[in-house]
């Protein structure tokens, strides 16, 4: 082999080596570009999730139950004076845990419940024929003083018009120690003024202690089974309307009532035929 051939051969080896190095460098550059694009996409997705979370909100009455933690708003320091209301008592906190009562104890029966609040009495009629488990639970909780001094912690004033009550911890409690399923929910999602119904989480079996009073005709989602209607307001709806007129904390359409209202006691009696 001549020297010229050896030099040509060496050049070819050098060229092949340079080509390999260039290929590796190009691959590394592509990997960096891909990583940068992926990172940028992740940032955009994360930003979208944060914005969507802040903008979205569950507009149905869904409290915590069965050991979950509620995201319901806590009472605001901002209060509004409402005629006929006395100062609300301190929030008592989570009460003793109980066992689910037998629905047979309320089946076919009708009860009157006088809910005494710091703003006056609200009288309810409980329908054990249509919602025996729900009524049996409410009667037990009332007679065990479970509701004593518990605040009505949530007011909705936009699209949905309800005052939500029943949790001694103000919407952050663990419930009464049991939960149960949906009864007597309207298929069309219509809840007329004066309706008394159960609040729950997305779990249809999470009915427990929290309930709501509808103070203006309301449509609620039917997905998941709707919300159990177990009675109606027969007297004192004007009290709920006054609380609603004072608005929710911060001017929002969903929050703690500006005018604090708390359940002091609940007296339940069975109506005889």
UniProtKB/TrEMBL annotation:
Instruction: Keyword check for NAD, yes or no.
Output: no
For bias kind Low complexity, which ranges apply? 65-84
Identify one Pfam family in the record.
Pro_isomerase
| Annotated spans, Disordered | 58-85
Look up the coiled coil feature and give its residue ranges: none
Q: What UniProt keywords are attached to this protein's entry? A: Isomerase, Membrane, Transmembrane, Transmembrane helix
> Which terms does the record give in the GO molecular function aspect?
peptidyl-prolyl cis-trans isomerase activity
User: Which InterPro entries is this protein grouped with?
Assistant: Cyclophilin-like_dom_sf (IPR029000), Cyclophilin-type_PPIase_dom (IPR002130), Cyclophilin_A-like (IPR044666)
- Give start and end of each PPIase cyclophilin-type domain: 120-268
PANTHER family in the record = PEPTIDYL-PROLYL CIS-TRANS ISOMERASE B-RELATED, PEPTIDYL-PROLYL CIS-TRANS ISOMERASE-RELATED
What protein does this entry describe?
A: Peptidylprolyl isomerase
Organism, scientific name: Knoellia koreensis
């Amino acid at each position: 082999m001549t020297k010229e051939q050896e030099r040509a051969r060496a050049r070819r080896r050098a060229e092949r080596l340079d080509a390999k190095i260039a290929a590796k460098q190009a691959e590394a550059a592509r990997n960096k570009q891909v990583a940068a694009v992926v990172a940028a996409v992740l940032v955009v997705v994360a930003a979208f999730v944060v914005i969507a979370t802040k903008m979205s909100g569950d507009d149905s009455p869904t409290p915590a139950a069965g050991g979950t933690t509620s995201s319901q708003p806590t009472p605001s320091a901002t209060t509004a004076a409402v005629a006929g209301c006395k100062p609300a008592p301190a929030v008592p906190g989570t009460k003793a845990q109980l066992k689910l009562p037998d629905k047979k104890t309320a089946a076919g029966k009708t009860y009157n419940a006088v809910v005494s609040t710091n703003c006056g009495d609200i009288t309810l009629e409980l329908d054990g024929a249509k919602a025996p488990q729900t009524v049996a639970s409410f009667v037990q909780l009332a007679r065990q003083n479970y509701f004593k001094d518990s605040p009505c912690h949530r007011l909705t004033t936009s699209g949905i018009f309800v005052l939500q009550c029943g949790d001694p911890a103000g919407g952050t409690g663990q419930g009464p120690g049991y939960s149960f399923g949906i009864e007597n929910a309207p298929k069309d999602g219509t809840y007329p003024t004066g309706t008394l119904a159960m609040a729950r989480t997305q779990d249809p079996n999470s009915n427990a202690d929290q309930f709501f009073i509808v103070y203006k005709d309301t449509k609620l989602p039917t997905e998941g089974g709707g919300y159990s209607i177990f009675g109606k307001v027969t007297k004192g709806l004007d009290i709920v309307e006054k609380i609603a007129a004072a608005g929710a904390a911060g001017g929002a359409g969903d929050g703690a009532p500006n005018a604090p209202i708390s359940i002091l006691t609940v007296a339940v009696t069975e109506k005889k035929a």
